[in-house]
């Protein structure tokens, strides 16, 4: 039986990833009853330890894990590292004496305690005395309730987490109310502005992307363009001199680095380094998500009988968040760089085989398992292989981004 863990990032005020909420599902929907909350919670805990590598999934951040009453009473969370595991008490858990005692044991051992989808009731006071974080659902609550909770709980030393944040406007409102942590898809949705001035470095990166995907690449001209961007030059030289290439002599020239990489590798590596650099004023998770999507799309080339399109599929995933990174419409950006027509069609939302592949990758990212099953069937690929591919992509992307 295959298992799958989806990660949803939680950000702090500086747009850094504070933690991930881990959501466990079976890779094959028929083998998992998502209505069994006890089984779901226990499976996340067990598989985070035994089947998956927790450090690969969350790095040095924390892991929020939903806890039912059964999980709390049976002390199942104590199998996870106390410095990284956040005990997320679900909203339907009644705070009776056994639950309060269980949470006290966890707090005494050093675990962080969070209350999920919190709505105040005096019965929760014993838990509020121990709570480190309160999560407020911004879709199910109104602004007055959201503001009142922040106003009353922050002075008690409790961090406020706004979840189900769907738009930039809601995110800004939550910050104004005093919320310190944020969860939702606001970061992955483009904020379309009629036209926004682009910082010079992003114009330069767009120029580099255009040059490396031109029909005829002028290496000398490309080297000069890259040299004008200090951060990209540094990363490229660091890459070529890394253990991955095992070169005998140190490379100190951008032109030499490009010559050693070869055109295929240049297009892949310079593209992803540019994407990483363009995310410098955005949440870092955007760049990591772009890399995960790129790797996943590339891995799907063979099973989708597109073995000769690996590079194109990689770029499709890599460029799938360009509109968010640059705060501009995707069709406008694609007019300024050279990519194949079917990739452009997929990125601009037009139906086709490539769009279906991208939709599958995004559905996995969001944990939309029914959609994953449907799209895998449409593409005629084995769904059971997808969880392993996704975990490989996550690990690869984290390694690349921190290189």
In a few lines, what is going on in this structure?
The chain is α/β, with parallel strands linked by helices and 403 residues long.
What does this structure look like?
- This protein has 403 residues and is an alpha/beta fold.
- It folds into 2 domains: 3-187, EAL domain (TIM Barrel); 200-401, Hypothetical protein af1432.
- Helices cover 50% and strands 12% of the residues.
- It contains 20 helices and 8 strands.
- The chain has helices at 37-49, 54-58, 69-73, 97-108, 125-128, 143-153, 168-177, 200-212, 219-227, 230-240, 254-261, 263-278, 284-299, 310-318, 322-326, 330-334, 341-347, 353-366, 369-379, 386-401, and strands at residues 3-11, 17-26, 62-67, 85-89, 112-115, 133-137, 159-163, 181-183.
- It has an 8-stranded mixed barrel with strand order 1-2-3-4-5-6-7-8, surrounded by 4 helices.
- The radius of gyration is 23 Å and the shape is elongated.
- Residues 26-34 and 188-200 have low confidence and may be disordered.
């Amino acid at each position: 039986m295959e298992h799958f863990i989806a990660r949803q990032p939680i950000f702090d005020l500086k747009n850094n990833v504070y933690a991930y909420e881990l959501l466990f599902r079976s890779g094959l929907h028929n083998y998992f009853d998502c209505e069994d909350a006890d089984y779901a919670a226990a499976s996340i805990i067990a598989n985070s330890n035994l089947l998956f590598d927790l450090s690969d999934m969350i790095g040095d951040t924390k892991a929020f894990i939903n806890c039912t009453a059964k999980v709390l009473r049976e002390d199942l969370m104590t199998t996870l590292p106390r410095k990284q595991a956040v005990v997320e008490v679900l909203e339907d858990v009644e705070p009776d004496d056994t639950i309060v005692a269980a949470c006290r044991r966890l707090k005494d051992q050093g675990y962080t305690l969070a209350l999920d989808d919190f709505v105040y009731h005096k019965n929760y006071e014993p838990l509020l005395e121990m709570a480190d974080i309160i999560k407020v659902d911004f879709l199910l609550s109104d602004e007055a309730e959201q503001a009142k909770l922040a106003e009353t709980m922050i002075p008690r030393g409790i961090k406020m987490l706004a979840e189900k944040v769907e738009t930039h406007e809601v995110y800004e409102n939550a910050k104004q109310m005093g919320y310190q942590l944020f969860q939702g898809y606001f970061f992955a949705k483009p904020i379309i502005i009629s036209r926004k001035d682009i910082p010079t470095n992003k114009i330069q990166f767009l120029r580099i992307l255009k040059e490396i995907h031109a029909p005829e690449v002028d290496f000398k001209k490309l080297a000069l363009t890259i040299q004008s961007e200090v951060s990209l030059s540094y990363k490229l030289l660091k890459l070529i001199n890394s253990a991955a290439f095992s070169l005998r002599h140190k490379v100190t020239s951008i032109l030499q680095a490009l010559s050693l990489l070869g055109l295929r590798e240049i297009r892949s590596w310079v593209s992803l380094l540019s994407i990483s650099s363009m995310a410098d004023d955005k949440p870092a998770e955007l760049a990591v998500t772009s890399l995960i999507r790129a790797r996943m799309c590339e891995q799907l080339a063979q099973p989708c009988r597109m073995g000769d399109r690996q590079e194109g599929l990689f770029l499709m995933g890599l460029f799938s968040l360009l509109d968010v990174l640059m705060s501009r419409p995707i069709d406008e950006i694609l007019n300024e760089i050279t990519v194949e027509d079917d990739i452009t069609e997929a990125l601009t939302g037009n139906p086709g085989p490539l769009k279906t592949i991208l939709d599958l990758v995004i559905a996995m990212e969001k944990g939309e398992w029914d959609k994953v099953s449907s799209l895998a069937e449409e593409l005629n690929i084995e769904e059971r292989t997808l969880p392993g591919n996704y975990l490989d992509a996550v690990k690869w992307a984290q390694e690349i981004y921190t290189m």
